[in-house]
């Protein structure tokens, strides 16, 4: 009887560990690449290298822009930048990502906006080049553009 209990307990433990492993397993990325760099010109905020990070969950996607070369000209409180990121789409209409997500930033701090939310379709090929990022901070609109395509290439969505 004791052997049967140990066997049952071991089976339950193995099942629980397997379920836990599945819960923490990384999900497959539906967008490739997941990061890209671009050189952006943002006027008042400055200009230089920026990193874009993309995620996808079905037709929902997010993009985040981070840059140490583009800095906050004044202190900016968390979630106070109204951002609109328009990405050129080589397979159809441009895609727009919006949101007010940003960390608090001191004067001179690197700019971070996002994740900004948008909708994508299977096969979309999105590039910041020929798109733009508009940030409205304290009523002032700052527009960022790129002079060249992003590297290593556009974000392609499943």
TrEMBL record:
The signal peptide stretch is 1-25
List the keywords (alphabetical).
Signal
**Listed name of the protein:** Lipoprotein
């Amino acid at each position: 009887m004791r052997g049967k209990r140990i066997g049952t307990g071991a089976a339950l433990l193995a099942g629980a560990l397997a379920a836990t492993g599945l819960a923490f397993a990384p999900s497959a990325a539906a967008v490739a690449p997941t990061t890209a760099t671009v050189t952006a010109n943002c006027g008042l905020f400055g200009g230089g290298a920026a990193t874009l990070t993309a995620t996808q969950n079905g037709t929902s996607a997010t993009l985040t822009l981070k840059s140490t070369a583009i800095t906050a000209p004044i202190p900016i409180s968390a979630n106070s930048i109204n951002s609109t990121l328009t990405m050129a789409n080589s397979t159809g209409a441009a895609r727009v990502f919006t949101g007010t997500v940003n960390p608090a930033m001191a004067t001179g701090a690197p700019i971070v906006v996002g994740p900004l939310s948008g909708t994508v379709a299977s096969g979309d090929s999105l590039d910041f080049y020929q798109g733009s990022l508009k940030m409205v901070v304290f009523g002032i609109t700052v527009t960022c553009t790129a002079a060249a395509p992003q590297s290593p290439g556009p974000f392609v969505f499943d």
